[in-house]
Amino acid sequence: MPAAAADLVMSAAAAARVTRYVLLAASLAAAPAAADEDTDLSRIPTETAPATSAPTSSKNVNYIGDALSFSGLRDNLAVPLPPPTPASWENWLFLDSRDEWNLGEDWRLDYSGRLNFRTSNALTFPNHDNVLNEMRELFVQFQPNPTTWIELGRVNIRNGVALGYNPTDFFRPRTVIDPLTADPSVLREDRLGTLMVSVQSLWQFGSIQLAYAPRVTLPTAIYTPRDEPSFDPGLDRTNAQDRFLAKASLNIAPSFNPEVLFYHAGTRSQIGANLTAPAGHDTVLYLEWAGGVRSDIITDAFSYGQTTGTLPASVTSLLPNDPSARFMNDLAVGASYATENRMTFNLEYHFHQAGFSSSDWRNWFAASAQRGSVQGVNAALWYIRSYAQDQQEPVARHTAFLRFDWQDAFIKDVEVTALASIDLQDGSGFMQTTVGYNLSRAWTVSVLASGSYGGRRSDFGSIPVAETLLLRAARYF
Amino acid sequence: MRCVMFKLVWFRSPPYCGSSPERTSEQSTTLENSTLLVSLSIRKSVRRLLHIMTDFRIGTLAIALMTVLAIASAGGAWAQSAREIIAAADKVRNPADPFHITTILTEYVRSQPKDSTVLVVYSKEDKASGQFRNLVRYVEPPRDAGKMALLDGQNLWFYDPAAKSSVRISAQQRLVGQASIGDVLTVNFAVDYTGTLLGNETIADAEKQQRNCWHLDLRAATSTAVYSRAEYWVEKGTFRPVKAKFWSDSGRILKVLYYRDFVQRLGAVRPGSAVIIDAVDSTLVTTVRFDNPAFQDIPDFWFQRDYLPRLRPE
Fold it and tell me: Closest partner residue to A405 among B1, B6, B72, by Cβ?
């Protein structure tokens, strides 16, 4: 019924009754609230905080920090690790900077890097290896019009919507130097960019980005902590082949902004997609996929080892894998769930078709058992896993990943982060928990504990480091 | 671990914006006059109708039926008034033109100032939905500088410059952190909530001055509504928001908010600050101060994930 017509039939008596009813209900509801109100008002602080200036220009983040870690090593590994033995304690003193400068109306200069001073029981002191400079980014940005940006220099382009593994993060291989943690989220932060030219245009319905990274040097052997160059920019890690990326994102709906990618590196091409969507009030679903013609990780590792002179040509006969190239898929699918009390859970499944199958694992352990006494066999077997780590590529084919984050856990300014990565083929896994506390605006301290578990002949049960404890403090300025 | 912690300080649009005081005054007068005229009209019409019905001896059954209809229509009349009040209060808080503003949050623990957070918020009303689209840039504390958030209906993203990647967040996650406050302060309630006028109430404002207010009950009407329920007090005559209470989905009170320090900003008299009293943690109170407001032409293409890394200080 139209409101105007309804008004016409409203009797005065009925209106009065309704009014009395509503006012009575309101007064009843308000009665207990009055006491609450007094309590509320008494909590309003009378002391005024010192007048805070309102800076609006800063994007710079700089901090000095120290991290000390202790590791427990496994004895009696199923596949003995060739020397050098991993350090049982390490200390990093570092200065981390992320700064941006305006060079004019449309020009900017960006720098991101870290200067480390490392000591450990695996490094002699003093030694040039004690100093390690990581130049993560250094690039000039030009904005010729309000919707276009051109970047030239070492740039970090990160793709992907998953947390534990990003199949579409095509520029990730070889970019991480001596990581402090296995947390994939942190590994995405502390890595080298790639020398490239990149152009991105935005419009209301989406964006397009094109990037070209030229080959400027030859591939080099995988580094160990003992042979990292101190001040080399590491272009051999990032620019040892010509690479090209095209990426488009489409704003189809507020809750659906798919991203499609094409990537070409050397002689291989890949396509990929990133999809996310909210599911209700507290959940986000996401899917990340990439596919292309390639060989499995064993073939790729041995090929790289031969190219860089680390492995002999005969290494290809060590394992009975299929060396042929074929279309392979990489997938990360997951969900994020947030609770009212500031907890966030992420559960993901990762599929890496180029990774080890169950038979690959059996062959890997069997090769050491049968031929491990032959010089170089165990080193070649471990080279595959070193290669996977260097490429930031999972060794396992099927992995479950769980991440938990709790802000203001138990007390304010405490954040608890925990993650677990489980090889679904053998049930072994890796777990890590971090507790961080913001002591003040400038100071942050944290403790990290991690450990791996599993049978002696399993993915995580066969790695040399069993557990790690890391203490960290940082002062921002 | 070199983890840069996510501390989500979600913000929507700042709380002032909207009409001029003159316009507010006109709205007040118009609303009260129209309510009075409708009331008189109803009484006259009902009297005339009753007289006619008696003359034609239709009977008590018809009268009873009309009484039921009248009660039902009374509910409609209250809801209409509630919506107008809420919309008018929204206009006191939010201007129609796009703008940016610096928001300074100071957190008090047991009445002692502890942390402060500085954000710059870029807001633009979406003409289609009537709701605000917001971009938030973190300025302080130093560890959070450069982080960004896009808060645009269901299009919610968080960008961390350390990771150089954007993560979609859920509506629940925009509630995380002390300054979900931003949502409380600035959302256009008339768009996201259905209001019911509970009645008139005189309450104390943040300065403990008595204010004669409309007391409204708000229930979420859209999927983008941040809170499932809110209570809202709007000062009669000025349409200034005075106080609000917000509930979680599970039915507990999350926070109580007082608007205060009404000053001339962005073309009208609007709240210059607010106090948020945490109803879950009894030791926690947050004050919000607004600085450097300015109208700014904000293109629509800014409100997408890929613009977050491009947002620069003005």
Answer: B6
